[in-house]
Amino acid sequence: MNIGPVRAFNLMRKIRGGFDKVGVTSTDCKNFKRDINLFIGEFDVDMAVQRLMKKKQFLPNFSCEFYCDEKGALAGLFWADEEMKLNYEVFGDVMSFDATFRTNRYFIHFL
Description:
This protein has 4 helices and 2 strands. 47% of the residues lie in helices and 12% in strands.
């Protein structure tokens, strides 16, 4: 869930019972998000694919496939875990949602 650093700080403040009990400032949260984004940089897709491929290696009923376009950019990604496969067996259909709706910075079309 992407709620942003200020909302995350306010949520922590409410859960912990006050600003003084959070242990960080709102600026600390913003800086942390900035540092994470700098660390990830242009490798967000690579990190996701690597994580899924590692799951495929260690989980026997996990499937993952991806393909890239002629420029090497991710063009398609599919994964299914054991529970997804069991649901498909029971219901015989799949429903998926475009989580990138109106935020699709890579211009990947949802199919």
